[in-house]
Design a protein that fits this description.
By secondary structure, this protein is an all-alpha fold. It has one domain. It has 6 helices and no strands. α2 packs antiparallel against α6. The radius of gyration is 13 Å and the shape is globular. The mean pLDDT is 86. Keywords: DNA-directed RNA polymerase, Nucleus, Transcription. Pfam families: RNA_pol_Rpb4. This is DNA-directed RNA polymerase III subunit RPC9. InterPro entries: HRDC-like_sf, RNA_pol_Rpb4/RPC9_core, Rpb4/RPC9, Rpb4/RPC9_sf, RPC9.
Amino acid sequence: MEVLKQRVTVLTNQEVLSFLNAVKKEEDNKLTGAETLQVVNMRPANTTDIQLLVEETEERFPSEEELEKLITTITDCLPPPPKR
């Protein structure tokens, strides 16, 4: 696929694939495709940022630990967003 050969702004293809694979391995991946794309683009670093990107966060992530696990996955796989 031609898309995989192109660089995604400041992220490498490997970083994006690493994140997608990590999210896919989660027992109950609760992110939609659009939300996953937003997470890759925005790279939220705290639970407040996640709550702004994900609809119905309280229902889909009932415990704070689930949100923290998602934040850990994001920060482990993706570099912080560029400074504006």
